[in-house]
Design brief:
about 0% strand; single chain; mainly alpha; 4 helices
Length: about 100
């Protein structure tokens, strides 16, 4: 999947998490449904060990009251495509030389 499509989906999924935070009373019930769904979506969007760790963090963040404001999906996108990419580029340069 294109990294910008992943970014758009990440922002969308974080927005869904915010919606459950904004609705008083109903929002906490929505988190009961959204917490496992967000963890599952995280494992599908980001593969491997880091995806599983992010899924666990996403589940905990959505399940805990008041923590919905953390953009877990978007932070994972930045980790995957911005911060980890630099390390891979440096390793590739070292391997070529």
């Amino acid at each position: 999947m294109n990294k910008y499509k992943k970014l758009a989906l990440s922002i969308l999924f974080d927005a869904i998490g915010y919606i459950t935070f904004l609705i008083p009373g109903i929002g906490e019930f929505g988190d009961i449904i959204w917490a496992p769904a967000s963890a599952w979506l995280m494992t599908k969007l980001y593969k491997g060990k880091s995806g599983k760790i992010a899924a666990a963090i996403s589940f905990i963040e959505e399940a805990m009251p008041g923590m919905d404001v953390i953009p877990t999906f978007t932070l994972m996108w930045f980790y995957t495509h911005v911060f980890s990419s630099e390390k891979k580029s440096e390793e590739t340069i070292i391997d070529i030389n």
